[in-house]
């Protein structure tokens, strides 16, 4: 017995040693990165592309493309939203060398994918570079990282934020629609007195909080080309954190985790009355709270100072071509159609309330119409206004998945009574710096 | 005492090492072992070796978006593992979980198995299946189902859940323990039950002749005889506990108390989504070693007792 087990372990060790020896050579040919910019040539013959996204109803949009382009057939695969699992899949697929040709990536995750060398530089694709001026400036900035002659994705939509609120309930209870955050806090008390919650604090989706910091004029990262600056707990972040901490402490906001059935239900039964969210959130409410159709309205986001006109941005996606795609040219053709053609943009807006990232997109006839779920209000007018009020200069870091996870861990603690939101940001500041350092990503002192 | 005397030879026979003879048909044996060996190498040794190798690499790059290079870094990743507070907190958490949940689950499994084996019980086939059915429910589905049962407003038992928040920081670990127990009791019961069925009936006859009742037979004959099965299920359970992933991953969306580093495996998962595959590999290797050590320590401990 002893002999055999020893023999077995020797065998296993040998196997491991062989494996290690075998793998060591493969480590040398890790791609050096960024070299894909050289090629953007059409392929011969028919091409099949794969596209992973989480836009609801995308299948019908892609069907329209496939019917018109028999030589470039796109197979679409849908998954959970990016931080909900799709990014993790992308990273794994990139590591394994079997990523799809195209993928949906929100602007905040682009640096993360670029630093992991997951994106194809589309700078060599003449069509893409020619489309540069079609896009709203800040969205192009996000995909080009401000570098001339480069593009690491094609902008798709923007997420200007506004206030979704239950018009009927606010009117019935005589609560004025808040225009400042101070009024919002006051309204929260009245809503609580009327038996509801004004909203939930989004402890597990930190993206919303980032949008609020964005509105307040803060930024979490800076990049001077040599090193990243990390500032999760700066002045503006602290102001936003303390504001929400106060609402949490006074039990004026609920702690229902976002994106759960419980959260949908709270909106559906009228237990939650407002949501400060992005334009695509129009779809989330409509699908999550079908019983409240016609009772909602949209107003501009509450302001920090009376009379200001500043909006935050939450999300907004781009379509990226992953490293390793053999049909970059065809992939960009599809991505450009998807994100710039009136046909596709109208379909995307109908299917998922996406707000186009193109300048011409704002003039789409579909966006001028009233939306039934929101009592016939032409809600995109509010978002069109908001999209011009988003401050420039918010920079995303290269490890946002980790930042969101760590901030969320702290936020979760804060809403369940241990620690504060500001402490969560301070602790994430430290863990973010150590994560960057462990990946040899330079951090400014 | 009489019963234990009966037990001794049975146990001895089963544990006696077979005498080593020169092996004939070496080629045939090699032929039959080959499929297993190939699959073992491909799907076990190779991934483990790859993970070990990944854990020894570190990333180097220059500038904010400089291309990454993987270079050999020795034990640098392991240094980070041992300095990582949340990881060790999560290890402590699953150890606490295991120390409570494993004995409770196995005790229940043993009781159910003894009841099924008892001549007094009716409808054995039904109960055998009924207890086993939860194991046929995929772990993720079970976690989602229980997540809904626990949730304060959607649960069919709102009278309970709106007063006692089972998803709060104090209780969520035990809420998960309940899910795991619910899923695995039947599985462990079946292992113990099949081992009970293997006990020869003469042993029972002898015990009855000595005047033992059903309870006494259960206590002095059945339990000692199924001890190897209980040891086996304990080892499986220890391994399962340390590798807890599906339940906390699902509960993360339901509960504010479940963080991205709630269990060691969840830490591995979160680290690989940074993505920092090298550090995630180092976490996995350490976790695997800890699992080996704990399982073998338990086996050694129980074997020593057996000798005495």
UniProtKB/TrEMBL annotation, chain A:
The keyword Chloroplast does not apply. Keywords: Cell membrane, Lipoprotein, Membrane, Palmitate, Signal. The keyword Iron-sulfur does not apply. It comes from the Bacteria. Residues 1-27 form the signal peptide. Pfam families: SBP_bac_1. This is Sugar ABC transporter substrate-binding protein. It comes from Cellulomonas cellasea DSM 20118.
TrEMBL record, chain B:
SUPFAM superfamilies: MetI-like (SSF161098). Gene3D superfamilies: MetI-like. Its main location: membrane. Residues 91-298 form the ABC transmembrane type-1 domain. It is found in: Cell membrane. CDD domains: TM_PBP2 (cd06261). Keywords: Cell membrane, Membrane, Transmembrane, Transmembrane helix, Transport. It is a multi-pass membrane protein. The keyword Transmembrane applies. It comes from the Bacteria. The keyword Membrane applies. One of its GO terms (biological process) is transmembrane transport. One of its GO terms (cellular component) is plasma membrane. The chain crosses the membrane at residues 29-53, 94-117, 129-151, 171-199, 225-246, 279-299. Belongs to the binding-protein-dependent transport system permease family. This is Sugar ABC transporter permease.
């Amino acid at each position: 017995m002893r002999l055999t087990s020893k023999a077995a372990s020797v065998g296993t060790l040998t196997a491991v040693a062989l494996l290690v020896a075998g793998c060591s050579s493969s480590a040398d040919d890790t791609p050096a990165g960024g070299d894909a910019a050289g090629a953007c040539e059409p392929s011969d013959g028919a091409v099949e592309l794969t596209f992973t996204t989480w836009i609801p109803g995308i299948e019908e949009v892609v069907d329209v493309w496939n019917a018109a382009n028999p030589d470039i057939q796109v197979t679409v695969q849908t998954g959970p939203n990016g931080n909900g699992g799709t990014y993790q899949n992308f990273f794994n697929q990139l590591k394994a060398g079997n990523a799809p040709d195209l993928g949906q990536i929100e602007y905040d995750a682009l640096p993360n994918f670029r630093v992991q060398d997951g994106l194809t530089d589309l700078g060599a694709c003449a069509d893409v570079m020619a489309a540069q001026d079609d896009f709203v400036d800040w969205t192009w900035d996000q995909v080009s990282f401000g570098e001339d002659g480069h593009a690491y994705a094609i902008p798709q939509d923007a997420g200007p934020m506004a206030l979704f609120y239950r018009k009927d309930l606010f009117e019935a209870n005589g609560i004025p629609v808040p225009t400042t955050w101070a009024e919002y806090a006051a309204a929260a008390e009245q809503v609580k007195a009327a038996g509801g919650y004004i909203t939930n604090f989004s402890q597990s989706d930190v993206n919303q909080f980032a949008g609020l910091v964005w509105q307040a004029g803060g930024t979490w990262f800076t990049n001077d080309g040599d090193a990243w600056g990390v500032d999760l707990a700066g002045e503006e972040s602290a102001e936003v954190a303390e504001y929400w901490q106060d609402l949490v402490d006074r039990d004026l906001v609920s702690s229902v985790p976002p994106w759960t059935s419980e959260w949908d239900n709270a909106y559906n039964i009228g237990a939650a009355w407002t949501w400060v969210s992005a334009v695509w959130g129009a779809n989330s409410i409509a699908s999550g709270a079908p019983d409240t159709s016609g009772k909602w309205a949209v107003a501009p986001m509450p302001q920090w100072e009376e009379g200001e006109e500043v909006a935050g941005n939450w999300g907004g996606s781009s379509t990226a071509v992953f490293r390793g795609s053999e049909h970059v040219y065809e992939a960009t053709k599809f991505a450009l159609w998807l994100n710039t053609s009136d046909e596709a943009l109208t379909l995307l807006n109908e299917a998922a309330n996406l707000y186009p990232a193109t300048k011409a997109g704002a003039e789409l006839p579909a966006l001028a119409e009233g939306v039934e779920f929101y009592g016939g209000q032409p809600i995109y007018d509010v978002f069109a206004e908001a999209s011009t009020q988003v401050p420039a200069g918010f920079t995303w870091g290269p490890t946002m998945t980790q930042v969101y996870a760590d901030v969320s861990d702290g936020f979760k603690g804060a809403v369940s009574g241990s620690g504060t939101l500001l402490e969560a940001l301070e602790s994430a500041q430290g863990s973010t710096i150590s994560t960057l350092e462990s990946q040899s990503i330079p951090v400014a002192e | 005492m009489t019963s234990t005397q009966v037990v001794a030879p049975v146990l001895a026979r089963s544990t006696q090492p077979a005498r080593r003879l020169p092996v004939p048909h070496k080629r045939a044996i090699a032929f039959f072992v080959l499929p297993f060996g190939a699959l073992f190498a491909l799907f076990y040794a190779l991934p483990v070796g790859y993970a070990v190798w990944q854990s020894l690499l570190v990333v180097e790059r220059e500038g904010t978006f400089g291309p990454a290079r993987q270079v050999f870094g020795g034990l640098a990743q392991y240094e980070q593992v041992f300095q990582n507070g949340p990881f060790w907190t999560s290890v402590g958490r699953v150890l606490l979980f295991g120390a409570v949940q494993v004995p409770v689950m196995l005790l229940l499994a043993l009781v159910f198995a003894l009841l099924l084996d008892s001549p007094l019980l009716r409808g054995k086939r039904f109960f055998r299946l009924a207890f086993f059915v939860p194991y046929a429910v995929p772990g993720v589905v079970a976690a989602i189902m229980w997540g809904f049962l626990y949730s304060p407003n959607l649960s069919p038992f709102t009278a309970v859940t709106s007063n006692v928040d089972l998803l709060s920081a104090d209780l969520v670990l035990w809420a998960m323990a309940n899910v795991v127990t619910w899923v695995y009791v039947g599985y462990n019961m079946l292992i113990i039950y099949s081992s009970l069925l293997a006990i020869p009936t003469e042993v029972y006859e002898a015990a009855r002749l000595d005047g033992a009742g059903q309870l006494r037979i259960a206590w002095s004959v059945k339990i000692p005889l199924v001890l190897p099965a209980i040891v086996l299920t304990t080892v499986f359970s220890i391994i399962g506990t340390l590798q807890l992933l599906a339940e906390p991953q699902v509960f993360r969306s339901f509960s504010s108390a479940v963080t991205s580093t709630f269990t060691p495996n969840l830490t591995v998962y979160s680290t690989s989504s940074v993505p920092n595959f090298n550090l995630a590999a180092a976490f996995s290797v350490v976790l695997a070693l800890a699992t080996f050590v704990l399982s073998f320590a338990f086996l050694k401990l129980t074997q020593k007792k057996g000798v005495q």
